[in-house]
Amino acid sequence: MVHEGMPAMPGYTIELNLEGRTAVVVGLGAVGRRKAAGLLAAGARVVGVDPMASTTGGEPLAGIEVLAEPYRDQHLSGAFLAVAAATPEVNRRVVRDAKGLGILGCSASDPGEGDFVVPATWTSGPLVLTVSTSGASPALAAALRDRAVEALGPAAAGLAAILVELRPLVLARVPDSAARRPLFLEWADPKWLALWQEEGPEAVRRDLVRRIEQAAASGPADSAHGREDRPEP
Ligand SMILES: C[C@@]1(CC(=O)O)C2=NC(=C\c3[nH]c(c(CCC(=O)O)c3CC(=O)O)Cc3[nH]c(c(CC(=O)O)c3CCC(=O)O)/C=C3\N/C(=C\2)[C@@H](CCC(=O)O)[C@]3(C)CC(=O)O)/[C@H]1CCC(=O)O
Ligand SMILES: NC(=O)c1ccc[n+]([C@@H]2O[C@H](COP(=O)([O-])OP(=O)(O)OC[C@H]3O[C@@H](n4cnc5c(N)ncnc54)[C@H](O)[C@@H]3O)[C@@H](O)[C@H]2O)c1
């Protein structure tokens, strides 16, 4: 059964660029500190509001601008988003004030009241893996994330890191977009993960670079022909 505070349906998933943006976290208990740490890691300027901040435990407060005072709506001025992790009563005020100011708000106690929920996340280089249960079971979300990380492992993150490097090379060496397409689609083949596991990153890089050189040498006509064997995604 869906409980009252849950979002009516799963939300729209995005990856926010928080560089240079201000995020306000109200309540710096274990939950607020965890959210603040995630926001800091994503490049946000984090302001934490909690009259008891110095006595709470959890993730360290380093890097957070702490205001040791009870929440007031003025704390939200200039913010891009707000996370309410205090008592349910305070959280309700925070998300209501945020809505009034057009600021994105998350309630750690009443997921249905805010604009977003925070999924369980794993990041490594350019690779981001998230699992959400839309409030049904955050513990399950974290456990499923852990299983997925175990299954994909360093090979997936390492492959993504190599591809960040190789994408500009392809754009420069294979100017014809029809010729590039089969090359880019081939990067999704699980064979690269298998090769990584069997022979390591250098073998993957070597074969990927070889494929780019082949495509660059064969030119638009040949590569476009190769495309016929591949199904559209
Ligand atoms: C994924 C993660 C991300 C993060 O916070 O960074 C996250 N919660 C995590 C852990 C966790 N949270 C809770 C437990 C105890 C077990 C349990 O209660 O199930 C554990 C497990 C633990 O502590 O190990 C308790 C809890 N959580 C919420 C409520 C309120 C309610 O349910 O009404 C209550 C109190 C319930 C009560 O009153 O008892 C609400 C939310 N928690 C969410 C996210 C959002 C939904 C995401 C989703 O459903 O997928 C949402 C809706 C809003 C939000 O906070 O964004 C993080 C994993 C961190 C990691 O390991 O990486
Ligand atoms: N979303 C989640 O992952 C999750 C997990 C567990 C609990 N919760 C909920 O999140 C909230 C926080 O959980 P917690 O375990 O960190 O609790 P906590 O009691 O450790 O921390 C809450 C903090 O809010 C502060 N606070 C109280 N009134 C305030 C005010 N007026 N202004 C600013 N700060 C104020 C307190 O000083 C305290 O440090 C609770 O509502 C809890 O039900 C959420």
TrEMBL record:
Keywords: NAD, Oxidoreductase, Porphyrin biosynthesis
EC number: 1.3.1.76
Enzyme class: oxidoreductase
Swiss-Prot/TrEMBL catalytic activity: precorrin-2 + NAD(+) = sirohydrochlorin + NADH + 2 H(+)
Isomerase recorded as keyword: no
Pathway of action: Porphyrin-containing compound metabolism; siroheme biosynthesis; sirohydrochlorin from precorrin-2: step 1/1
GO biological process entries: siroheme biosynthetic process
One Pfam family this sequence matches: NAD_binding_7
GO MF terms, alphabetically ordered: ferrochelatase activity; precorrin-2 dehydrogenase activity
PANTHER family given in the database record: SIROHEME BIOSYNTHESIS PROTEIN MET8
NCBIfam families named in the record: cysG_Nterm (TIGR01470)
Identification of the protein by name: precorrin-2 dehydrogenase
Lineage: Bacteria, Pseudomonadati, Planctomycetota, Planctomycetia, Isosphaerales
Gene name in the database record: sirC
